[in-house]
Design goal:
152 residues, mainly alpha
């Protein structure tokens, strides 16, 4: 509409055609800017939704073998872009969020079951007890066994 109006004004003999062309041109630029802003907002919104789905998956099933490569593939982002946007959205890295999710599940299992600590480590997605114990202690400041004794 604006382009046609500019062309019509340009071929007219109106007294204020230069002002009209300027206003139509301003309106055209304003509408293009609005569209660009809306597209950027839609992209940010859909990116957030994809990241939130990934986050919900790792919090729902922290025992699965999650990886940055898998998450980046699921969100159609490069690994570095995924890591950047994940931390920007949630204030924590993907790996740190996964560790916190696994340790949270471990704390629940330690305080509500009689499963062995090795079995709990496996149920939380750890392949080795030593790795589990090291990450648990780093997050909770006590060993899994001490945590169990204090919270049963």
């Amino acid at each position: 509409f604006c382009i046609k109006a500019i062309a019509d004004e340009n071929s007219s003999e109106h007294l204020h055609k230069a002002d009209s062309i300027s206003h139509y041109f301003w309106l055209l630029c304003n509408k293009v800017s609005e569209q660009a802003h809306e597209q950027a907002h839609i992209q940010i919104s859909s990116r957030y939704e994809m990241l939130l789905i990934i986050r919900n998956k790792i919090h729902t099933a922290p025992y699965l073998d999650w990886s940055i490569g898998w998450a980046a593939h699921e969100t159609c982002m490069s690994r570095s872009s995924f890591q950047h946007h994940y931390k920007e959205q949630f204030g924590v890295s993907f790996i740190q969020d996964l560790i916190e999710s696994r340790v949270s599940r471990a704390k629940m299992l330690l305080s509500t079951t009689n499963m062995s600590i090795q079995d709990i480590a496996m149920q939380c997605g750890y392949r080795s007890y030593e790795h589990f114990a090291r990450q648990f202690r780093a997050q909770v400041d006590v060993s899994p066994g001490d945590y169990r004794r204090r919270n049963q």
